[in-house]
Amino acid sequence: MKITLASKTQKAKVFLDDRDLDQSDSFGTQVVKSVTLARPNIFIVLEASFPPEELMGTSYAAGTVSTQITLDPVTGKLKKVEKIQGGILGASLGNGTHVSEETCFPAKIPFKP
Fold first, then answer.
1. What is the pTM of this model?
2. Span 85-111, pLDDT tens digits
3. In the chain, is it the N or the C terminus that has fewer CB atoms within a 10 Å radius of its CB?
């Protein structure tokens, strides 16, 4: 993961496996809304929207997902809170708030306050 903080001329950027998380195509749009460093934690807010679609004869309305990620690089703990509304995700996972947690490898560089 690579994070570039916002400056006066550029918005915050997040890259995962060298892939920019700001994405837009015919399948939808995903935008990094903010990146906040509150040492040692990193907070990332993403918003995604998807147009109506039809898949295997089933029609789905437009949908949105708001995601808040909290990453503690010292412990490797990652917590993701997603608010799903509509679309194929709402139909398959259910509308509402979904919380997941993962344990990743801690950062190799020690935390310096």
1. 0.80
2. 999 999 999 999 999 999 888 777 655
3. C
Report the 10 Å Cβ neighbour count for 103. Answer: 9
Tokens of 94: 């259910």
Cα dihedral 89, 94, 97, 99 sign: negative
Q: If we measure between CA atoms, which residue out of 76, 11, 69, 12 comes closest to residue 42?
A: 69
In whole angstroms, give the CA distance from residue 23 to residue 27: 10
Question: 70, 75, 56: which is closest to 101 by C-alpha?
Answer: 70
**Residue ranges of the domains in the chain?**
2-103
The token pair at 63 is 């949908």
